[in-house]
Amino acid sequence: MSLPTQQQILETTKKALAACGADFDQLTSASSGGAGSLTLRSPINGAELGQVPADDEAAMGRKLDAAREAFKQWRDVPAPVRGKVVQRWGQLLEEHKSDLGELVTIEAGKIPSEAAGEVQEMIDICELALGQSRQLFGKTLPSERPGHRLMETWHPLGVVGIITAFNFPVAVFAWNTALALIAGDTVVWKPSETSSLSAIGAEALLRRAAKDCGAPENLSQVLLGDRDLGAAMVADKRVDLVSATGSVAMGRKVGPVVAERFGRVLLELGGNNAAIVAPSADLDLALRGVVFAAAGTAGQRCTTLRRLIVHSSVADDLVDRVAKAYGTLAIGSPTDDGTLVGPLINKASFDAMQNALRAAEEQGGTIVCGGKRVLTDEADDAYYVEPAVVRMPSQTQIVEDETFAPILYVMEYDDFDAAVELNNAVPQGLSSAVFTSELAEAERFLAYSDTGIANVNIGTSGAEIGGAFGGNKETGWGRESGTDSWQAYMRQATNTINYSGELPLAQGVEFI
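The chain above was modelled as a monomer; its predicted structure follows.
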């Protein structure tokens, strides 16, 4: 198995980007205007593909001003008409699913099926948002005063600033943007520095959709820059809602800054997800759920399975099965047929994984399999690793810390309620799962697991658009995509209409 050359990746990049409506050569030859540039690099082989000019704070200010002007027009467009733009975007995403998926593979290192799945998430949220555009409903409430009507209404909020991470370079943008647009908001998007091309491709398709529907310009704009530029956007009062996806450390910085200026914030942060495997579990089913959730995307999902809590009676059997399954996983370039585990995003991720494995051993853990770097003869700057399984005597400090790499810590339990407590005994609260055939165990788990997503007999990774996505505790208390998450992008008003001809006060107060 060999990695593709820089030229091969470059040719694929140019073709995919052109199909989405952007010119690679034009982008990389543009002047930076003194703001510096971002290096384009693929984790597939570590090679540099070029550079794109970055935005400075002045450019950001112009884009925010343009977004506020566009909002003044967009908020007056009827919501079902706004939905037509999102519908058209979904159609274009369907037409260019493979093109945008190739950009995701090149920049995030995802295997093609996962990259295509990410674009499918964008298509799905467009479909959901289209339907939601006719259902931005409020409630009519009974008034205690005769001749009065009490109701709640929802109104466009303003400018939504979106910050996304490298591991889902386009889907999270769409989760936020599709709902923000039907809510009547405009969007300014700061993608990860490692995902510039994916962002440009996704944005080009959205701009085409807006133009096709005769919508105002600048409904959505991309900011290319580093963390400092993102921090500047977070602090800017022209941004009404900041929706940020990233680490807990990032969330600790974003939350207080937005709160200080009385803005609104939606945070999707870390996950340290666990699955409990009970004695009654179907171990074949559990095995499949565990292996994908733990090793898929090279362990670089926020919903990746990081802790496996197994009943002592089946622990040895299941660990042995997982180790054998890991030995069959094809590790290599995501551009090769049959590959199941692609690269880590960069050297920092590899170093973090190695440090975590050393800490696990120091804290009493035993590495069952994996953890080694492979394909080092193919590219010095690409980081492919064997997914690791580590048996731990208890939930030590390293287990409670999220390492964004394919490490699965295994712990045993004897009492089910103690296993649920172990599931909850981490600062993060995104996703969890239980594998059991006992109804009572399943119901107790759903009642007491403190994660925002809790599953029975499926893994922790993978979520449908129809359900709200998000977590609790240090994961950030944010909710995106399904159910009532549209409300985060709107402002609520309570309205009282008096048609009585009198002026009775609430609670029986008498004044005049």
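The chain has a mean pLDDT of 96.
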